[in-house]
Amino acid sequence: MGVVGVNFEDSVVGDGRALMDGDDFARILTGVNGILQKDNVDMFMNVRTDSFLLGNDNAIEESKKRISLYEDAGASGIFVPCIQEASDIKEIVASTSLPVNVLYMPSLPDFDTLNELGVKRISMGSFLFNQMYSNYEKSVELLLDQRSFKSVL
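-> structure tokens emitted (153 positions)
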């Protein structure tokens, strides 16, 4: 089918979002990895850990513990959404041999700094799309209010 990668999240959504037990989640990853290997499927398993996203008080230590579990379970990469501080990013990158992915956040360091810190991928999430869509809506409203295409030029 051409699929070369999948994302896994270690949190679940019910009445709210909550972290799964790290050991249980690692067992799921180990099982998926085993099936992929058995079927000789080369798949990038990008594993997201949500300690920062959920605002855990001990987000760094919890993330590092989970990253170690997920790396041992066969993860190909780690995604840490909502991490923003350069010192936190540096510590997370140093804790793993896997490529680290971060999510765009307003306080996220610039691209050059992220590169220096060892970040391999930056996800935009829905932020850029939402901004573009908001601008699109404003443009359409202006066009309709002016009953002209002059605002589009």
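The first helix runs from residue 22 to 38.
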